[in-house]
Specification:
Blueprint lengths: L3 H16 L5 H8 E9 L5 E3 L1 H15 E15 L8 E13 L12 E13 L2 E9 L1 H7 L31 H18 L10 H6 L2 E8 L6 E3 L1 H15 E6 L4 E5 L2 E5 L4 E5 L13 E3 L1 E8 L2 E9 L1 H7 L4 H5 L6
Parallel strand pairs: 1-6, 7-15
Antiparallel strand pairs: 1-2, 3-4, 4-5, 5-6, 7-8, 9-12, 10-11, 11-14, 12-13, 14-15
Helix pairs in contact: 1-2, 2-3
Length: about 325
C-alpha cells in the first residue's frame, strides 16, 4: 500500500483545523472524524469519545490559549499496523504546536510569549474518516516555559527539541516499502533485546545498547528526564537510572506500531506497568505497580537506530503514586 489517500486526508484535516477559529473546531471535527471517534490523550484529558467531547475538552480550550496558532511538523509518515497484521492504516505526525500563550491553559499561567507544545499524534483512517487517535503532548515542558518547576531533577537536558538531523522526516510522497520493513525490523530487534534486562543478563548495558543503536544516537526524552546523546551518555543519563529504579517490569504491548521509509514508531495504553524501588525524578515514590503511557518515534540509519523521540504521560504516572504535578506546581489547577 502507498497510503497516499490516508496521508492526504490527514493533511487536509490539519489545514482545516489549524486555520479555523476556536468556535469552528467542532464543525471541523464533524467533517473529518467518525461519530464514534476514540481519542486518547495525556492526563488530565485521558480518553474522550466523539467529536464534540474532543473539541470541547481539548481543542477549543487549547486554541483559545495559544493564539496565532501554527503546527510545525518534523515527522510525517503512514503505515499498516503490525499489531493487527497490517490490516489498519495509521498516519503519524510529530512536532510542535506553536502560538502566543495569551490565556491560561489547565491553570498554567499565560506568558504572552511564544510557546511550544511538543506533540505526537497517531490517527487511524478508515473509509475516509479518522476513527481513532492517540495524541500525546508534553504538558510539563509547557509548564517550564511558563516559569514553573514541575520536577526537581532531570538526569539529562530538556530543550525545545528539533526534528531529525537529516531533515527528511516529512514522508508526504510514496516510499520504498523495503525501507519501512528494515526500519520495523530495527525497532523490533531493539524491543526484543531490551525485554531481557529483567531476565538476569549480566553484560554491560552499553554492550546491549550497541546492538540496536548507532554510537552517536540521540534520545529526545520528555521534560523530567531530558535529551541525551551517545550510547555511553544515554546509559548514564536515562537507561541505567531507569532500570535501577523500577522492578517487576511488565510489557503490556502496543496498540499500534508502524514504519515507513527510515522512520517508525508505536504507542501503548499503557505500554508498561512497573514498580518503583525508590525516588524517581527527584520525587519520593511508593512501592506499587504503576502504568506508563508512551509514544516512541525512531529514525533508522543503516541497520540501527539513530534518533528516538519519547513522549511519556508523567502527569498520569505521578497521579497513580498520589502526586498531582499540576496541583503542586499550580495551586487550583484543573485535575
Amino acid at each position: 500500500m502507498e497510503f497516499q489517500t490516508e496521508k492526504q486526508l490527514i493533511r487536509d484535516y490539519y489545514t482545516a483545523l489549524d486555520s479555523s477559529d476556536p468556535d469552528s473546531i467542532g464543525n471541523i471535527l464533524d467533517q473529518f472524524v467518525s461519530s464514534e471517534y476514540l481519542w486518547r490523550g495525556f492526563h488530565p484529558f485521558n480518553q474522550q469519545v466523539g467529536p464534540k467531547a474532543v473539541s470541547e475538552q481539548f481543542w477549543k480550550p487549547l486554541r483559545q490559549s495559544l493564539t496565532s496558532f501554527q503546527r510545525r511538523i518534523d515527522v510525517f509518515m503512514a503505515g499498516g499496523n503490525q499489531i493487527d497484521d497490517f490490516k489498519s492504516v495509521w498516519v503519524t505526525s510529530m512536532g510542535h504546536l506553536v502560538g502566543l500563550f495569551d490565556e491560561p491553559w489547565l491553570g498554567i499561567p499565560a506568558t504572552g510569549k511564544m510557546a511550544f507544545l511538543r506533540y505526537c499524534e497517531f490517527n487511524r483512517v478508515e473509509d475516509g474518516k479518522i476513527t481513532e487517535t492517540a495524541m500525546f503532548f508534553d504538558i510539563p515542558h509547557l509548564m517550564i516555559q511558563a516559569g514553573l518547576c514541575p520536577f526537581p531533577q532531570q538526569t539529562a537536558s530538556h530543550l525545545v527539541q528539533p526534528g531529525p538531523a537529516t531533515h527528511d522526516g516529512l514522508l508526504f510522497d510514496v516510499q520504498n516499502p523495503s525501507e519501512g520493513e528494515d526500519t520495523l525490523t530495527a525497532i523490533n530487534n531493539m524491543i526484543n533485546d531490551i525485554k531481557t534486562w529483567t531476565g538476569g543478563r549480566t553484560e554491560p548495558l552499553e554492550v546491549e545498547l550497541a546492538r540496536s543503536w548507532n554510537d552517536d544516537m540521540i534520545w529526545w526524552g520528555p521534560a523530567g528526564i531530558g535529551a541525551t546523546c551517545t550510547i555511553e551518555r544515554y546509559a548514564r543519563q536515562h537507561s541505567g537510572p531507569f532500570r535501577a529504579t523500577f522492578k517487576d517490569r511488565q510489557f503490556n504491548g502496543h496498540l499500534c506500531k508502524i514504519a515507513e521509509g527510515k522512520y517508525g514508531g508505536f504507542f501503548g495504553w499503557p505500554n508498561l506497568t512497573l514498580t518503583p524501588t525508590g525516588p524517581y525524578m527527584g520525587i519520593e515514590t511508593q512501592s506499587m505497580p504503576v502504568d506508563m503511557r508512551v509514544i516512541d518515534i525512531y529514525r533508522r540509519d543503516g541497520d540501527k537506530l539513530a534518533e528516538n523521540w519519547i513522549f511519556i504521560d508523567f502527569l498520569h504516572f505521578w497521579i497513580q503514586l498520589g502526586v498531582d504535578i499540576l496541583k503542586q506546581a499550580i495551586p487550583g489547577a484543573v485535575r
